[in-house]
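Please go through the sequence and fold tokens given here and tell me how the chain folds. Record follows.
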Amino acid sequence: MDEKTLWPGGQFPTTVLIVRTDYLKQHPDTIDALLRGEQQAIDFATTDPAGAKTVTNAAIQRLTGATLSQPVLDRAFSELSFGLDPLAATFPQLAQGTA
């Protein structure tokens, strides 16, 4: 099953950053650095997909002891899109835990 078929427009977030207002007020530099890092990672993935695949496969190898084949990486990355839009309209569905 392709999960995209379960979501409006075929788009859904895989990572959502949520911060308590109090924490944001107490640690604005930390949140700013986290968001800058996220933007840099997105920029890297979109401007250097080959490099992003290499970094991803290296991390998978560190965690599992095995790598993915190039065709598997290529297919996986062809199904991904990278951006900062949290797709907030999907949050009610995400909160239910079902698509």
